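Colleagues,

Please find the record for the two-part complex below.
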Amino acid sequence: MPAVNERFTVYCFLASYAIAFALEVLHFLRPRPIVRLLSLVFGAAGLLAQSLFVAVRPLDLASPFGSLVLLAWILAVFYLYGSIHHARLAWGLFVLPLVLGLIGLAEIAPAGPEPSNGGTSLWTSMSPSWGLVHGALLLLAAVGLSVGFVASIMYLVQVRRLRAKLAPGQGVRLLSLERLEEMNRRAILWSFPLLTAGLLAGIVLQLQHGAFLVGWSSPKIIITAGLWVVFAIVLYLRYGVHARGKQVALLTVIAFALLLIALVSVHPFVAGGGP
Amino acid sequence: MMLLAVGCNYRQTPIAVRERLAFTGPKLDLALDELSARYGCETAIVNTCNRVEIYLGKNDAQEAPDVHLIEEFLIQFHQLGGLDLHPYLVHYTGPDAVKHLFRVASSLDSMIVGEGQISGQVKQAYELAQERATLGPLLRALFQHARIVAKRVRSETGISRGHVSVSSVAVDYVRQVFGHFGDKTILVIGAGKMGELTLRHLKALKPQRIWVTNRSPEKAAEVAHGCAGQAIPWDQLDDALGRADIVLSTTGAPEPVVDRRRYKDILARRTGGTVVILDIAVPRDFDPDIHDGDRTCLFNIDDLKRIREQTLQERQKHVSPAEAIVEQEVKRFLGKWQQRQHVPTITKLTQDLEARRQAILTELFRRLNGKLSEADRGQIEGAFRLLQNQFLHGPISALAEDSPEAKHHTLLEALRKLFRLEE
């Protein structure tokens, strides 16, 4: 009989989320309460399977697989909460593709080198507490940015609908522009300090490791720094020059693209993963 | 089952006649009581501005009262001597009456298909009849089922999606842009009559403040007074536009009040979020090119009317699926009603067999007194119960499968069907 952790594979929850998404699309095309309910049931089943997967398998936050699966897991909670809280909106149509995409990316992303010292990465072995702080802060920042990304995509769709003067009751039902902008603003406001603190924790890690100048040319570090700069620009535009709406939404989408590249890049602190 | 629906509606009957046939105020209570007493039927009346319909039902009768009698009742009750109601009245009986009520409740028979008021009005008719104790099992079940059908049609089709009044469409657009209104400012430009209804709808959103401006300060003050707003001078229009969140423009100006260049300057100074401009003036007050769907959402009267027309057309696409739901539900209701009629027979049959089984077992155990263990007695009782259940299974299943359209059987065929002899 296979062990519990072998029974929960990525495909268990990937399939559940895919069915939930297909049902969301079906519900959008032909609204039926039962289809909506089934979609929620499959979404919840996927979340349960993924929770068990996360619980029984130690995931390394420094690896692309670990960070992407954990990010997808938190966003799946966000999906389920949103789908219940905003039952009349097309929430799942926007959040589920992101969850599915992140899990898919986790499967195809480079696995990174195998941990060299007894099952733990160099990242965790060299300074577990700072490593955890660094990883957790960046993960939370990624969650915030992902929420901001979803809000931005919804915002851009809503702007498109309004520009075309489509009938309010037709097509996808979304939050108002104001609510979506607020959601994006809050997500960025939460993410920026977390990202900054995560980067500072990374610097402390480098210093503790005694190799402050090592690894700076790593794509992961360069892209993460670039992400921080984009974030700073977004905040300046929002609060410095009172830019609103589409401009901020587009920059958030760019920041999310950078985040994805940073997440799939191999961490320089992982043994063999440096430049 | 006897079921009759008699009445008039906007299709056949002009408003002048509908007005005279309407059961207003205490007349409705009186009519319910009188109809119920006169014909010994369950009675309900659906009374709206577009229809007056009387529903009569009786479970243990087959013949409906003559429609001419109801016509006479209406003439007497409303004192319409000399008026020939015959051309105006429509009537439905049996399954057609069921279908008619389901179509009415689902707003398929409404002047504006998909309107939401009618299901509430059908509910009111039910509640009033319930209050007057003129409902019985048939109409109670029928009206309750009508509400289920209306709900199903609303949730499973897009028939009630969108709004069909210009003011409601305007508010729908405003809601697509803003999530809360307690901190919003509405600016009303001009004092056109056309804007009154829209302003009333916007006011219902409970904005923080309403500003009114007009070339004539007196008119501005008058409109501001009417909507609990604040009049502001016409020369502060640009400043107000830079600070307002929702603009309702209804001037009678022959030229656009705000052209593109002027608006660009206003927008450059603006620090707030998106502004929604509802330009319902003809000729238009704002240059249509300022609309970008992001910082400025401009909707003019043609946009709002186009959405209303689109919504009505879109609703038409959902009529056919809605009619299919109604057909399904009519069959379901009639089937359930038919089965409900069988309940007393099934109960009697079960009780009768139960009594016979008990009598036979009592006699058997008396004869075999002392020769049976408790286990033996249990087994015999179980075997008899099994036999009884197997015996009843055929007739009960046959009744459950029975439908109003089922063909009549000969005695022999019925026997085969009841006891599954053909299987």
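The interface with chain A takes residues 155-158, 161-163, 169, 172-173, 175-180, 271, 273-274, 291-295, 297, 299, 303, 306-307, 310-311, 314 of chain B (CB under 8 Å).

Comments are welcome before we finalize the supplementary table.
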